[in-house]
Amino acid sequence: MTPRPHWLPEEILTRLASGGGGAEAARHLVAAERSKHRLLVLGVVRLAGSDPAVGRAYDLLAWLEKKAPQAVEKVIGHPATGAWATHVLRSRATPDRSGAVQLGALAAAAAARAGLPARVAAPAPDGRIMLPSLGELVIEERAEVIDLTLREDATIEAGGRRVRVGDDEAPGWRPLRSVSADGLSLCVDDLDPFRWSPGDVPDGRLPPAELDTWREYLQIAWTVMRARHWTLAEETAEIVSVLTPITGPAYRMNSATARDRFGAIGMSTPRDWRWLAYTFAHEVQHAKLGAVLDTLELLEPDDGRYYAPWRPDPRPLAGLLQGTYAHLGVAGFWRRQRAHETGLQAHVEFAHWRQAAFEAAGTLLDSGRLTAPGERFVTVMRRTLAAWMTESVPQAALDAAAEQAVAHRESWLARNA
After folding, report:
1. Are 315 and 305 in contact (CB under 8 A)?
2. Distance between CA atoms of 33 and 240, rounded to whole angstroms?
3. DSSP string covering 152-219, please?
4. Nearest to residue 194, comparing CAs of 253, 131, 119?
5. Its domain of life (predicted)?
6. What are the pLDDT digits (tens) for 13-65?
7. FRET pair for 372, CA 20 to 30 Å: which of 159, 196, 275, 285?
8. Quick check: is 292 in a domain?
9. What residue numbers bound the domain in which 120 lies?
10. Residue 386 CA, distance from chain mean position
11. Can you give the pLDDT at residue 6?
12. How confident is the model at residue 160, as a pLDDT?
């Protein structure tokens, strides 16, 4: 359970700043985030002090890492694990013992993945015990802390109940499901209480019919991404491990990422494969930049608010940086996709977002609040966008994109004057 120091080689950082990076750059970011999760878990252990249940859970994790390191890595790297540890550490002023003892559920999940026998304690205040990355135990007993006994035959004894852990639902066991395409398998986490902000998740699990829709569109989107957007496909395969259902505005789609849930994309049910592919292009950029910012300071403190051509409200500089990098990826997606579509829409999207990101990158450079690495990073971003600004686009698409840009700015000014 020992974290390692991480840094981004200059060549990797330059590739990331250009908007891409590929599998090699993504692996650097994933390694850094895995170490971040380990530091967070260590922070929880230290916060718990002499709590014996937390100490035993940590000792079990350390033992399991020697026996089955991949099982421990899978659980520690699960996005909800980072959110749980962050929550416990942020609430240290009013410590919640059950929050720290949740480390026992992490250890149990790792033992179950490894197929090794173990004994550990975990919280079950409502008769439910979430095993991160696997699923949920449902027992009759409710207790602040309850003992779990894991067997080599993939069963767990808890509260007088013996439950078989696996991919299929069984009495007392609700597994996390997955969606897969050729060479890609993503967990659909609709159970973990730390999977997303509670107010943004729908009630209940994702219905089977909607899960089938996710599977159908993922297979098509992934085929297209591998054929036309191969850098994005490489980064998605390395970075994204979880899709989390979240609510969307009426009649519209929604997607998001979160710094404390690296590897997860929250999204509403896709309306088609194209939206899903575009969502990967958008949200993987956010995940990449979040990991860069965990490794390197790009901005100095700033309390200003700035115009963002994709938002109705003024944005802080950190938000503008995130949005600019995300829309660099969006512009790149439509730049490639327009070669494979008829009609003007893909051209309009490319023209609109290259211009928006180019202007926002200029705002960042003019702010005077970038660090030296930040200055180099945004300069490379803008250099990529400047090259794209010279690429030919049908005049009708340029006119439509310009009309959208003017309408957005006028609306923003009216709203925020």
Report:
1. yes
2. 12
3. TTSEEEETTEEEE-SSS-BTTEEE-EEEEETTEEEEE--S-TTSS-GGGS-SSSPPHHHHHHHHHHHH
4. 131
5. Bacteria
6. 999 999 999 999 999 999 999 999 999 999 999 998 888 999 999 999 999 99
7. 285
8. no
9. 49-174
10. 29
11. 77
12. 84
Domain-embedded: residue 122? yes
Give me 146's structure tokens. Answer: 């309850």
Mean pLDDT, range 98-115, rounded to an integer = 93
Which tokens is 200 given? 């943004």
Tell me the pLDDT band of 1, cut-offs 50, 70 and 90.
Answer: low
Q: Give yes or no for residue 402 having a pLDDT over 60.
A: yes
* Phi/psi-derived region of residue 370, left when phi > 0, alpha when psi is between -120 and 50, beta in every other case: beta
Domain limit, last residue, from 174, 200, 221: 174
Residue whose entry in the numeric block shows the structure tokens 């009759």: 140
Say if residues 82 and 260 touch (Cβ distance below 8 Å).
yes
338-354: per-residue pLDDT in tens? 999 999 999 999 999 99
Q: Which residue has the tokens 């179950």?
A: 112
Residue 151 is assigned to a structural domain of this protein: yes
**Cβ-based neighbours of 113, under 8 Å, separated by 6 or more:** 68, 71, 74, 75, 133, 134
DSSP string, 14-61: HHHHTT--HHHHHHHHHHHHHHHHHHHHHHHHHHHTT-HHHHHHHHHH
Longest dimension (CA), the chain: 71
The residue written with tokens 């901005």 in the block is 299
Classify the phi-psi angles of 393: left when phi > 0, otherwise alpha if psi is within -120 to 50, otherwise beta: beta
Q: Per the structure, how many domains does the chain have? A: 2
Does residue 203 lie within any of the structural domains?
no
Contact 54, 48 (CB under 8 A): yes
Res. 412 pLDDT band, cuts 50 70 90: very high
pTM of the predicted protein model: 0.95
User: Which residue is it, tokens 């998740």?
Assistant: 201
